[in-house]
Each structure stands twice: as structure tokens, then as C-alpha cells.
Specification:
Length: 370
């Protein structure tokens, strides 16, 4: 039995068609190279997150701690304190990057993100309401509801994100493009209005709530990986095992939708239903990330923009966006832990300091292009 002949031929946009017998695949060397580089960056930052802290560890100590070997204090520090925090940062970055790629591809707008659609604000409102409600409940029960408090906040965040998504879809779905689906421009406009409304609800709730719980809620709203444990890892990891493959399937439809509604319909894509599922996936990813670490702003905006610039290929760079999202979150957490000795900033604050000027740059650049 002879092996099938392997051949390669150049295609458009720098792509290469590789064929082995009846099987062929379209490869994009630049996208692969960028993906490898982003993966290496995420792995390097992940290992740095395990090594850097109040007591810095050598690479050998990190490896020994991961394997459960060496000093018990090192094993405890790596496995119980730093590993779950780094994993939550990695997973939250993957979720936000993927959510941003889907949102920007759907809206065909580099300024769009789950933050703009009101999803993050809805998740924040849900979590804050749960936090303040738990405060009175815990006090009344003498602390007996502590277990409920651990699951109530992420559930509140997911419920808030889902409510925001339902409102966005309900208000956007009344106007359709060529009778086929959601209007991307109306989607963004409705999202901006809902984000403002949810932000107002959060501020009103904080003013009216208990001072201690309002302080805790304010800290959570900055978006931080501080204190994240294995209970947060399992929740976000389980959700991403379902959501990331789902997004990978949907992005192929999204690439076709970028050709236009008429072309997509001619190619057999059900435009309205596809857009609906893309919105659901983006909302679920953003809600999951917010439930795990709070609203880490601008990651879902910055990562897909960077991915498009470095990949320079057609379509939506979902994988690269997710990897760069992980790089951004892990790097922001490292900076937050080390920029001021003895004091830790929230990772969300670092992302906001970098993301706000980048958003301004995008707005100015978009205005010049028009």
C-alpha cells in the first residue's frame, strides 16, 4: 500500500492548499505563526504568574510545586494559591477574546465588544444585586449562608448577562435586514443604551445598599483575580469546554456572513438563526468571564483588534483573539501585582489604563478612514 502523494499550491491572500490524495486543507502560514507565538506568550506569562509573588520562585521550584515535590510551603503556594489564580486569568482571557471576536465580526465594527452590547454591565448589575442581597441574608442567618454566597455571585452575573442579551435581542429583532436577521448597527445602538441603564442601576444599588456589602461590590466591579480559587476554575473551565467548540463552529458561518446577507443566503446559510446563535455564544462567553473575575474591561475590545492586525487574513480570527485575550489578562495581572511594591492593583484597572487610550486611538483612526 503506497502513501498518498502530498502536494501544495499557493492560493489567494497568502494561503496554501495542501492536498494528500482525496483530502485537502487550506493553511495560512502567517495565521499559524501568529497562533504559535500567541500560545508561547500565554504559556510564558502563565509560568511567570506561578513564579512571581510575595516570594519569588525559581523555575525549578515552580516545576517541583506543580508536581507536588519539594518544600511543602512551595507546593502549597503553587498549587493552592497561584495555580488557580493563573488558570482563572488564562480562561477568562480566552473567553473575553473569543467573545470580542464574535461580537466585532457580527457587528462588522472594530469598536464593538460585549461591553458595548451591555452584556458586561448586565452581568455586573446581577452580581451586585446578589452581593447586596446576600449581605442581609448572611447577617440574618448568622453566617449560615456562606456556601450559598460562593455560588450566588456567579449565578447572578450569568443571569444579568442573559437578561441583557434577551433585552438586546428583543429590542433589536423588531427591525431586520432584508427580512433575514438582526441589524448589526441597531444591535450596537441598543447595547450602548442598555449598558448605560445597567450602569445606572449598579450605581443606584450601591448608594442604597449596606456600606460593607457596597464596598465589597465596588472591589468586585474593578475586575480582579485576587483570591480566585479552584471553585472559580472548575466553573469557568466547564463552561468553556462547551462554549469554545460551539464558537469555533459558529465562526465558519460568521465568515460567510461577512460576504453579505444575499451571498450567505445563496450559500445555504440561514442568516437570522446564525446571527442569533452567534449572539448567544458571545453573551455566554462574556457572562462566564465576568462571573469568574468581575468585569475586566477592554480585553474583548483590544484582543480581536490586535489579532486582525497581526493575522492580516480574511475572516474572523477567533483562535488568535482568544489566545491574545489570555495574554492581555495574564500580563495585566502580573503588572497589577508588581507595579507598586506591597500593594496590588486590580487587573481590570490595568486593562482600563491601557484599553481606554487604545479605544480613543481606534475612534480617531476610524474617523480618519471615513
Amino acid at each position: 500500500m503506497t502513501a498518498p502523494a502530498l502536494s501544495a499550491a499557493r492560493a489567494g491572500n497568502g494561503a496554501v492548499v495542501v492536498q494528500a490524495g482525496p483530502v485537502s486543507a487550506l493553511l495560512r502560514p502567517r495565521a499559524l505563526l501568529v497562533g504559535v507565538g500567541a500560545t508561547a506568550g500565554a504559556v510564558g506569562l502563565f509560568l511567570a504568574a506561578l513564579a512571581v509573588g510575595s516570594t519569588d520562585l525559581s523555575p525549578g521550584e515552580v516545576v517541583g510545586g506543580l508536581l507536588g515535590q519539594g518544600k511543602s510551603s512551595v507546593v502549597f503556594t503553587v498549587q493552592r494559591l497561584r495555580l488557580p489564580r493563573a488558570l482563572v486569568g488564562l480562561l477568562v482571557g480566552l473567553a473575553l477574546g473569543a467573545a470580542g471576536a464574535l461580537t466585532q465580526g457580527l457587528a462588522r465594527n472594530p469598536l464593538a465588544s460585549p461591553d458595548v452590547l451591555g452584556v458586561t454591565a448586565g452581568a455586573s448589575a446581577g452580581a451586585v444585586l446578589v452581593l447586596l442581597a446576600q449581605g442581609s441574608t448572611t447577617a440574618a442567618a448568622g453566617g449560615a449562608s456562606a456556601g450559598l454566597a460562593q455560588v450566588g455571585l456567579p449565578l447572578g452575573a450569568v443571569a444579568g448577562a442573559a437578561l441583557a442579551a434577551v433585552l438586546v435581542l428583543a429590542l433589536t429583532g423588531r427591525r431586520r435586514v432584508d427580512g433575514a436577521g438582526l441589524d448589526p448597527h441597531r444591535l450596537v445602538l441598543v447595547g450602548v443604551v442598555l449598558a448605560a441603564a445597567f450602569t445606572g442601576l449598579v450605581e443606584y444599588t450601591l448608594v442604597r445598599g449596606d456600606v460593607d456589602q457596597a464596598t465589597k461590590a465596588t472591589v468586585w466591579l474593578t475586575g480582579s483575580l485576587h483570591g480566585r480559587g479552584w471553585e472559580h476554575v472548575w466553573g469557568v473551565a466547564t463552561a468553556l469546554l462547551i462554549l469554545l467548540p460551539f464558537a469555533a463552529v459558529l465562526v465558519r458561518r460568521l465568515d460567510v456572513l461577512l460576504l453579505g446577507d444575499s451571498a450567505a443566503t445563496a450559500l445555504g446559510i440561514r442568516v437570522g438563526r446564525s446571527r442569533l446563535w452567534i449572539v448567544v455564544a458571545a453573551v455566554a462567553l462574556a457572562g462566564t468571564a465576568t462571573a469568574a473575575a468581575g468585569p475586566v474591561a477592554f480585553v474583548a475590545l483590544v484582543a480581536p483588534n490586535l489579532a486582525r492586525r497581526v493575522v492580516r487574513g480574511p475572516g474572523v480570527p477567533l483562535v488568535t483573539s482568544a489566545l491574545l485575550g489570555a495574554v492581555v489578562v495574564l500580563a495585566a495581572d502580573l503588572v497589577a501585582r508588581g507595579v507598586i511594591p506591597g500593594f496590588e492593583l486590580p487587573a481590570g484597572a490595568v486593562c482600563a489604563l491601557v484599553g481606554a487610550p487604545y479605544l480613543l486611538y481606534l475612534i480617531l483612526r476610524t474617523s480618519k478612514e471615513r
